Amino acid sequence: MKIHFIGGAQEVGGSCSVVEVGSRRVLIDCGQRMGGGAEVDRLPDLQRVQELGGLDAILLTHAHADHIGALPLIHLAYPQVPLYTNEATLALMKIMLADSLKIMQMRWLHEAEIPLYPEHAVTSMLGRVEVVRPGDTFDLGEGELQATFLLSGHVLGACSLTLDTAEGRVFFTGDYSVDAQRTVDPITVPTVRPHVVVTEATYGNRLHAHRKAEETRLAEAVARVVGEGGKVLIPAFALGRAQEVLLILLSEQKAGRIPRFPIFVDGMVRNVCQIYSLFPEFLGERLRKQVEREGNPFFSEASAARAVSQTERESVPLGEPCCIVSSSGMLTGGPSQFYAAELASDAKNAIFITGYQDEESPGGKVLALAEGTERSLRLGDRLVQFACQIAKYNLSAHADAVQISSLVAQLGPRQCYLVHGDEGARAALAPMISQTTETLLPRNGEVAEFAFAPSLGRATARPQRATPVELPALQRGPKAVKHGHAILNQARKAVALIEEVRQVGWRPESQELLLYVPFPKSFQERRAAFVRELGERLGAGVVVLAKNTAGELAELVRRRLPLGARLVKAPSLFPDGRAVLKVRLADGPERQRLAEVLRRETGLVVELEEPGEAGEARETVKADGRMELNAAYRRVREVLGSAGLAVLRCGKKDSPQEHLEVGLLAPWLLEGHEQLLQALEGETGYPIRPAGANLQALEKRARELLPPAWQVLKPFQWSGREARLTVARLPQGPELELVTRKFREELGVELKI
Ligand SMILES: [Zn+2]
Ligand SMILES: [Zn+2]
């Protein structure tokens, strides 16, 4: 058996190796080199793969760019070769590679660095992925090669890889962690003994600080800066570190050990958080239970964390004291670079570094500033003066020297290869590895060759083909589906990679899955096969409903408008599937072309009007007897408002039939207004129904009605239209009467003291 070390041997970056045994060749990881500028050779030596005569399979340990960044290129060369990984890593890969494409575009525009691969290479590659569960053993060539992934801590979905062959057993650790992290459990150590271990050595010359103490130190430092009126930026890698930092701050806030302050989350981080909450079975036990109980743990209702949209970004540095967690991790680009430039000059603010920094990266240079006398630094195209506090916290997701050598000692292999570490780290680690194990420090381009006794066993599973639009959670079949909650969970995973789906719902009475998309008609045409298959697999009906059609249409138009043209007013939608837009755009073929493009993309009949044409009147004119939706909402608010009813929200619902739902503090407040409602229904062309009580708003208003002098012992207990309250002293006479009447009149609620 041979291991060809192609990239990522004496370095962190560009991880890539080929294992050759019998007639089989498998590639393990295929990453990019990350830091540095246009002069860096980003790719491992892929030529070598060709010289070896091609590949039978590609195995992926996890979704960090230094392990998957060059995959699309290998895929272009070998489009038929299947890739194997787990479903969480597959979902993360899609996000990570989309981001890589974006970064390459930027580098192409600003630094004339040529993109490594085109977009279609990514899509096509994701279509060749087959998913396997950690712990399952699968065949990669009958009688020659078997593979088993096991979770390795580090980040969501990260795995080690055991290869059993006719010439012995090799254990590739991949990237791994031994300390308990907030998100994932430590590495699972295999129970079978390998002949050869190939281990990462990132921190082979380092001992980590006590994890818990370091977490506390970070949380307290952030709280101190915010408490003194400053803002803290924590640049963090979008996959892994950002989730750890968020959970540390949120749990310290929840426990009351630090005060609650806003935490803004920007960059790719939010999407990655979403994937974490979609795959609870890959999380550590505590977080898994929390996710199963409460859903997304990063952005739950009680959480102080908020995702920042692109339009809000500029206002964050001008706003209240806060903490900002944003990618990129080394300030090489992304929103973190913008925030650093904005915050750096104020001594009240702070930049806290929590992860590995390439010396040449802006993040590395910021750290160097803290030690030296230099006070200015170039960030992107801005020269920035630094006065803010700078500090470093060690929250590593890699094993340290003692942890690595202990793992190797526990496994007791005959040979151990140290990779994924710089020369210093590997040289320091080598003497710590047990003397009964032969320890080797391969360099890129070198080949290891050995032969031990066969270790093949019986395969326990077969990988499942996963197309990028259909994740494998579904492939466990409808038998596993017990109730709506389980179906919803599966459906969320299934649509995770379908961009058009904005929300998923479940209608228990009809056992139907609801998919909310901006343009239902075109969605149903384009994704007909997916919708059908989804229904079959779940054993449930699938209904496609509209969500935010007008808003997304406006967004789409803005992107598609030719130079110099302008959207003048938000689109008006009509129930017959027409959309009328006011666009300032010269007449002629350009206009027809735009209407055609929009029709194709949305399935709506789009009419483009010149502002000031007859369109003005048409906007609220009834079509098919119904009022344009936004006009209808306005009218509902107007009419009910004039009757003294505050409308909290108004929206169109499609179930059980199309109607307008009006949200007031409580539905019973509409009682006695039947005539008004009838008139409104006639005018808008929609039936009007009240939404359920908004208990939160109701309670808030109820509290405001209570005189402060009443000492409330027990908060409100609601039962139907009755509110019970326990107070220290029974209020008397006119005061009690007044409050009771206010409750009855304004809230329609009987107050019982
Ligand atoms: Zn990694
Ligand atoms: Zn790595």
Describe the structure.
Helices cover 33% and strands 22% of the residues. With 753 residues, it is an alpha/beta fold. The chain folds into six domains: 2-206 and 398-449, Ribonuclease Z/Hydroxyacylglutathione hydrolase-like (Metallo-beta-lactamase, Chain A); 211-392, Rossmann fold (3-Layer(aba) Sandwich); 484-546, GMP Synthetase, Chain A, domain 3 (2-Layer Sandwich), CATH 3.30.300; 549-618, GMP Synthetase, Chain A, domain 3 (2-Layer Sandwich), CATH 3.30.300; 629-690; 695-752. β31 (659-663), α21 and β32 (688-690) form a beta-alpha-beta unit. α20 (629-642) packs antiparallel against α21. The protein is globular, with a radius of gyration of 30 Å. Mean pLDDT is 87; it is low at 467-482 and 613-619. The structure holds zinc ion (2 copies). One zinc ion (ZN) binds next to α2.
Topology of this protein?
Blueprint (H helix, E strand, L loop, with lengths): L1 E6 L8 E6 L2 E7 L16 H6 L4 E3 L5 H4 L2 H7 L5 E3 L1 H25 L7 H8 L2 E3 L5 E3 L5 E7 L7 E7 L2 E5 L23 E5 L10 H17 L4 E4 L5 H14 L8 E4 L2 H10 L6 H10 L10 E3 L15 E4 L7 H10 L6 E4 L8 H10 L4 E4 L2 E4 L3 E4 L8 H11 L3 E5 L3 H7 L8 E3 L6 E3 L14 E2 L18 H12 L7 E5 L4 E6 L2 H7 L1 H11 L2 E6 L2 H12 L5 E8 L4 E7 L4 H14 L2 E5 L5 H4 L10 H14 L6 E5 L5 E5 L10 H11 L3 E3 L4 H11 L6 E8 L2 E6 L5 H15 L2 E3 L1
Parallel strand pairs: 3-4, 4-5, 5-6, 10-11, 11-20, 12-15, 12-16, 13-14, 13-15, 16-19, 20-21, 25-26, 28-29, 31-32, 34-35
Antiparallel strand pairs: 1-2, 1-22, 2-3, 6-23, 7-8, 8-9, 9-10, 17-18, 24-25, 27-28, 30-31, 33-34
The structure holds zinc ion (2 copies).
